[in-house]
Design a protein that fits this description.
heterodimer; A: about 120 residues; mainly beta; seven-stranded mixed sheet; B: about 110 residues; four-stranded antiparallel sheet
């Protein structure tokens, strides 16, 4: 059974940093691209960042480019998101999700339970 | 970026009724790369439909997807109590991948 378990969220001050982790199990982690999606309280879903299976390619939403860094450690089956220069509008539940599809077109077939990041002074 | 507009914002129906949810794209979604997700309060989204009309593993056949180009529909043939939730469409044909704002299906 595929499982994704996020950790590392919490309260951060504006301008601060956190590192989110997503521990994966139940599949060959390094064979799949992985993604972070966030959801502000009471709002919809927003794609944040994607990393290829090897880690060699990364992609970011304009809203987080230059402030967030996605990475992965395939030996530990773990996905990361370093969130820095945090703003109030980054307050959200952050989900890790497994990409699935073909020919460069991927949807999200499995999601973690999410981790809350609150940015406030 | 492709903007997805879902309608209605809220759908009030009774168990056993048919639900029809719409997702309209600001430009054509290539090769029907359109997915639907269900999200219940306090839970993560769950994949229902991919490729506009293919049910994900374990999804009951009362859920069906249709459409192409810019207009897509999710239909729930007979609502069960566990189907009351928020539904999101998402396009994955163009970067960045984008989501609709969601349709809430609530008990009437």
């Amino acid at each position: 059974e595929v499982q994704l378990l996020e950790s590392g969220g919490g309260l951060a001050q504006p301008g601060g940093s956190l590192r989110l982790s997503c521990a994966a199990s139940g599949f060959t982690f390094g064979s799949y691209a992985m993604t972070w999606v966030r959801q502000a309280p009471g709002k919809g879903l927003e794609w944040v960042s994607t990393i290829s299976g090897s880690g060699g390619s990364t992609y970011y939403a304009d809203s987080v480019k230059g402030r967030f860094t996605i990475s992965r450690d395939n030996s530990k089956n773990t996905l990361y998101l370093q969130v820095s220069s945090l703003r109030a509008e980054d307050t959200a539940t952050y989900y890790c999700a497994k990409d699935w599809g073909s020919y460069g077109h991927y949807y999200f077939d499995c999601w973690g339970q999410g981790i809350l990041v609150t940015v406030s002074s | 970026d492709i903007v997805l507009t879902q309608s209605p914002g809220t759908l009030s129906l009774s168990p056993g009724e048919r639900a029809t949810l719409s997702c309209r794209a600001s430009q054509s979604v290539s090769s029907s790369y359109l997915a639907w997700y269900q999200q219940k309060p306090g839970q993560a989204p769950r994949l229902l439909i991919y490729g506009a009309s293919n049910r994900a593993t374990g999804i009951p056949d009362r859920f069906s997807g249709s459409g192409s180009g810019t207009d897509f529909t999710l239909t729930i043939s007979r609502l069960e109590p566990e189907d009351f939730a928020v539904y999101y469409c998402q396009q994955y044909g163009s970067s960045p991948r984008t989501f609709g704002q969601g349709t809430k299906v609530e008990i009437k």
